[in-house]
Every structure is written in C-alpha cells, then in structure tokens.
Design goal:
Elements: E1 7-11, H1 16-26, E2 30-35, E3 51-55, H2 60-72, E4 75-78, H3 84-88, H4 92-98, E5 103-108, H5 123-130, H6 149-174, E6 178-183, H7 184-191, H8 193-197, H9 212-216, E7 221-224, E8 230-233, H10 238-247, H11 258-269, H12 274-281, E9 288-290, H13 294-297, E10 307-309, E11 314-316, H14 342-348, H15 353-361, E12 365-366
Parallel strand pairs: 1-2, 1-4, 2-3, 4-5, 5-6
Antiparallel strand pairs: 3-12, 7-8, 8-9, 10-11
Family: Belongs to the CoA-transferase III family.
InterPro entries: CoA-transferase_III, CoA-Trfase_fam_III, CoA-Trfase_III_dom3_sf, CoA-Trfase_III_dom_1_sf
Protein name: Alpha-methylacyl-CoA racemase-like
C-alpha cells in the first residue's frame, strides 16, 4: 500500500481530522488516535482500523508521553484552535526540534492568525465566511448549506491530507518535516476556486438562483417524478439538450427561456416514474440520471461497485484507485474504544509495567484492562 510504514498521530476531534486520518489509513498508514481520558462517548464513525491512546494532556506526564511518541511518528494531526498546542507545550516548534522529520499538520476552522483564530465555529460558519455559501440558494430564498461537506471534508480533511502527502513527498528530497497549516475558511475558498474565479462568465451575472448552474436554468435542475422520486437533468451543451428534448418527445423548447422551460419540464417529468424516465434516457446522451438513495446506490448497476455494506451502514470504497499500490478500506476493521491501546503503546515506548500501572491509577492514561 502506498503509505505502508507511515505512522500518524491523530488528536481526537470532530469530522475533519478523523476524515484526514481515515484517508491516510485507507492507503496503508498506521494511525494512533490520541483521546482524552474522560472521553466516554465516541462520535467518531471514521476511526475503524485506528488505535487509541487515552492520555491526560493537562499533566506533565501526559505531555511527556506525547513528546516521546512524536519522536517515533511521521505525521501529527491536530484540530485545536490557535495556541492550544503551544500552551500545552507540544506546539510545532518544540516537537520539530525533537523530531526534524515530523510532518505537523494543523487543521483548524479559522487558521493560526486573524481576529477569529481563537473563535469556535462549524462548517456552516466557515463556508459563510469563504464566499461560497452566498451562492448556494434558489431564487429569492435564503442560502442553503450542503450539509457539512464543503468545509469539514472538502476544504478541511481532504485538503489537509493533500498537504500531508505533499510534505511527505518533499521529505524524500530534503529529509525534513514541516508544518502543514490548513484552515477550513481558506480551504473552502480554495475548493471553490472555479466558482469564485468564473463569476464573469456568461453562466453567472444574475442574482443567486437565476443562473445556469445554481437552479436558474431548466436544463440544470432536479425534477420530481410521478412516484415522488427525483431525476437530475444537466444537458448544458446543445447536442445534449437536443437529446433531452427527443427523450421528452418535445419538438422544441427554447434553450434560453428558463422560466417557461421549468414549467414545461416540471409537468412532463411528473407523468412518469423515476425508473421509467431512467429507462428512456439510458439510451441517450441527455445527461439525465436518477437521484438514488444511499441504499439504492449500493444496488444500482453502475454505482454498486463503488460501495460496500455492513449491517447498518453504506461504506464508499476509497475514491482514488492506484494500479500498483491500491488502497484497502479500513471501514470493516474494528473501531477502537477510548484508550484501548494505551498499554501496548506505552510498552512499545519502553515504559515498564509498574510505571504504566501507576499512570493508570493517577489518571494520566486510561485503559479498559483491569490488569497489565
């Protein structure tokens, strides 16, 4: 696997950090999650295949454990607000002095500097500041955020994983690590580069919801079908638009008359079920496809190869396919309990059994074992 042998410390956090760690793990990295000793609930659904060390970072002994670990690891992922790690005494300056090869990845909401750097926030706040959220709305409606995909996962976890991989590659030449500084406001803006840089193209220019790609056009829209399901319609180019009209048995429909086009297509798509329309357009290059539920996607003739399932969850396969060193999803591996691997990790660091047990009794580390 491409990242076999790479060791990653991932400080526990919400979605972006775990997603970043999941990507690295799927491609072969060994990931150790650093949990809080008082973490009694695990909301991290992306932790499969990782290990867990629960340590009290407010104690000198706990900080010493992190310093020792960082000497043995290639990558550290931390999701805290600016200044938190420095206040703990394990900021990048100190850890990079101890291990010059360390890739120290910082994944925050607002970055290390600026008036909001120490503020709390979530995906909706980050894309609001990025300039993107203002574009996501139908005409005369308030902006609608795309769940928490854009900042947490696209502009956050995925961008951070890309930065880590670039730093690892550069290290093969220099032999040195470096700081990878990602924040989700800036990452979301970068993710939206095409949207932000294309505003002078003819497809924009109107109010939100009145442009070609933001639900203004009748040929780039989601339509309800007879059975209460939906299809996506997206024939932007004229040759594909003609195929749409042919499939709908329309002799003509003005490409530029968005308002009338929507009224016509809304009525027509309600005359057949989603699957009936899918059958019609399966033989045409009209850019018309069904809106599938997550469960349906695992059974559809085209997408079923992209997914796996366990008893309760739809699991996407890794989205990047490498010909020689393919990824292997960690999703079917066990998710660690908080502190499940604390003892084994410390033994590997050279801690004696007596020392480990004393740390357990003092609450410096947490373990589920009653004895060593």
């Amino acid at each position: 696997m491409a990242l076999k042998g790479i060791k990653v410390l991932e400080f526990a956090g919400l979605a972006p950090g775990p997603f970043c760690g999941m990507i690295l793990a799927d491609f072969g990295a060994s990931v150790l999650r650093i949990d809080k000793v008082n973490n009694n609930t695990n909301l991290d659904v992306l932790s499969n295949g990782k290990q867990s060390l629960a340590v009290n970072l407010k104690s000198p002994e706990g900080i010493d454990i992190i310093k020792q670990l960082s000497k043995e690891y290639d990558v550290l992922i931390e999701p805290f607000r600016a200044g938190v790690m420095e206040n703990l005494g394990i900021g990048p300056k100190i850890l990079l002095e101890n291990n010059p090869k360390l890739i120290y990845a910082r994944l925050t909401g607002f970055g290390q500097d600026g008036p909001y750097s120490k503020r709390a926030g979530h995906d909706i706040n980050y894309i609001g500041l990025s300039g993107l959220l203002s574009m996501f709305s139908r005409v005369n409606e308030k902006p609608m955020f795309p769940a928490n995909l854009a900042a947490d996962f696209g502009g956050g976890g995925l961008m951070c994983a890309m930065g880590i991989l670039m730093a690892l590659y550069e290290r093969t030449n220099s032999g040195l690590g470096q700081i990878v500084d990602c924040n989700m406001v800036e990452g979301s803006s970068y993710l939206g580069s095409w949207l932000l840089r294309s505003q002078k193209l003819p497809i924009w220019g109107n109010k939100p919801g009145e442009n070609v790609l933001d639900s203004g056009a009748h040929f780039y829209e989601v339509y309800e079908t007879k059975d209460g399901k939906y299809v996506t319609v997206g024939p932007l180019e004229m040759q594909f638009y003609k195929e749409l009209l042919d499939g709908l048995e329309l002799e003509e429909l003005d490409y530029f008359d968005f308002k009338n086009g929507k009224e016509v297509l809304t009525k027509i798509f309600l005359t057949k079920t989603r699957d009936e329309w899918s059958k019609i357009f399966d033989e045409k290059d009209a850019c018309v496809f069904p809106v599938l539920t997550a469960e349906e996607a695992t059974e559809h003739k085209h997408t079923k190869c992209n997914f796996m399932k366990d008893e309760t969850t739809v699991i996407p396969k890794p989205g990047v396919k490498l010909s020689r060193t393919p990824a292997k999803t960690t999703a079917f591996k066990k998710s660690p309990q908080c502190g499940e691997d604390s003892i084994d990790v410390l033994k590997d660091l050279g801690y004696s059994e007596e020392n480990i047990w004393n740390l357990c009794k003092k609450g410096i580390i947490k373990t589920h074992k009653s004895k060593l």
